Amino acid sequence: MTHESSNEVKSVNRNLLQLGYAAQKFDEKTEAFHNRLLEKLDFMNKDREQTVSAAKSQNAALVLLSEYFKKERNQLSLEIRRSLTPVPQSVYELVMEPEDLLDILMVPLSLANADMMTCARHKTGFSDQVLQQAQSLVSTEKFNYWLQSERSETLLVDGNDEQNMRGMITPMSVLTATLSSALEGAYGKEGFIPLQFWCSMHTRRRDDVQGPLGMMRALLVQLVAALLNRNINQKFNFGDVNEKEFLGDLEEGCFRALKQTLKMLLELVPCELPVFFFIDDVSSFEDQRFCEDLHDVVGMLDCFVEENRNKIKVLYTFDS
Predict the structure, then answer these.
(1) 249 with 257: CB under 8 angstroms?
(2) Which end of the chain is more exposed for a tag (fewer CB within 10 A), N or C?
């Protein structure tokens, strides 16, 4: 082998060694890249699992929060309903002295007599013919049936006198004022209870007994006085009521409390003792201020008449 051939062989061997070394380095880099790729994929898988887990945890948390707020909302609604529900009030038997009831009603005992005297003073302003026309009522068949019937009855009377129905006092008002005295001949002074009210005299806003509810208070005072005069029950038992609430309503003149009081007092009246309600010129209350209250009061008296527990006679006069 020549010297040149030997050098070529050595060169080839060096090249082969370099190629082997390069191949080894390539394999190492390839393996390292492969390993890094596997690690990256593993990390990505773990990250995805963590993301999914976090999402599931977040959803679970949202569900728990939703259930919590739902429970809190329901609890709050329950507390609101409880707060709106009236707290049961103490209910006891209420027994009242007549004088205490009169103080609460705040109507002078002399009111009916004062109104009657007003009618008497106006009587001279009407002609005999006009007064006789009004007094002709007592001779009618309807009036006598109403008066003599053993049952409770209601009678409506039209004044039928346009010329004289414009004033506060009418010929029918004068007649109403004299009916109590006229009935004494039939029943005796203690044989009936007359309750009287002249609506046309009590329509002004500053009147303490204005309107249908004022009329109820005035009639109640007359009934209390009549019971005391006849020694019928010295104390009034209202049964089981919330005393504070009931007395407050009574002082304010609320229809419900007034109705309960009137019903209780009427139950104290002996069945054989008729109670007469003389309500003059009820049409004076047929306006916007009093219409609803008038409906309640008239409906109440109608119920008392229908029940017929007492002998109740109701006479209304009105202006057509």
Answers:
(1) yes
(2) N
Per-residue pLDDT of the chain (320 residues; tens, 9 = 90+): 555 556 555 665 666 566 566 556 666 666 665 677 567 656 666 656 665 565 566 566 555 656 655 666 666 665 655 555 555 567 788 999 999 999 999 999 999 999 999 999 988 888 888 888 888 888 899 999 999 999 999 999 987 666 655 578 999 999 999 998 888 878 888 899 999 999 999 999 999 999 999 999 999 999 999 999 988 867 899 988 898 999 999 999 999 999 999 999 999 999 999 999 999 999 999 989 999 999 999 999 999 999 988 899 999 998 76
Alpha helices (H) along the chain? 3-84, 98-105, 111-123, 128-135, 141-148, 171-187, 211-229, 243-252, 255-268, 291-307
68 lies in the same domain as 25 = yes
Domain encompassing residue 77: 1-85
pTM of the model: 0.71
Residues 309 and 289 in one domain: yes
Q: Are residues 242 and 156 in the same domain?
A: yes
Domain count, the chain: 2
* Residues 127, 239 within the same domain: yes
Please give the radius of gyration of the chain, using alpha carbons only, rounded to the nearest integer: 50
Token pair for 73: 């909302």
- How many whole angstroms separate alpha carbon 181 and alpha carbon 277? 14
Euclidean distance between CA atoms 91 and 189, whole angstroms? 40
Do residue 212 and residue 115 come from a single domain? yes
